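pasting for ref
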Amino acid sequence: MDRPTPAARFAAKVNTAGPWSLRRDCPGPCHLWEAAENEKGYGTFYVAGRTVKAHRYAYEQANGPIPAGLEVDHRCRRRACVTPAHLEAVTHRVNILRSTNHVAARAAVTHCPAGHAYDEANTIRAKNRTRKCRACKNAAARAARARAREDRLATVAPIRPRTAPTFERAA
């Protein structure tokens, strides 16, 4: 009895009639993995005595080994997709910035809420590596100093004049 090759086992678990990607740079339909998935929705495949992610296996079969320091990104944004044309080896930073998570949303912001540009001259990095607007921070500091100055120079209410004690007897 002949055992099927890993490639044949892999192909049997893929639905090539998946939905078309809504991304412009992803040609053709997604080939969706229809076998085991991990808790995050990525397909898993047992080959050569170990479990690998299905999209990584598909990329390696089509393009060779994944270069060191890179990870496979789903350009179509579907974790179950194993279409080689939808997979690309990119750095972790590029992969994160292409996603729709809060990190990518923050990185896409180019201006502070007051409308000042986040550029080299106007950006301060806080201790937690978040961006702060230098112009807004300076304006807040000026306003705080002005309030403190006003508090120091505030007029003092006059002291009430003392009235002469009255010596009335209680009857």
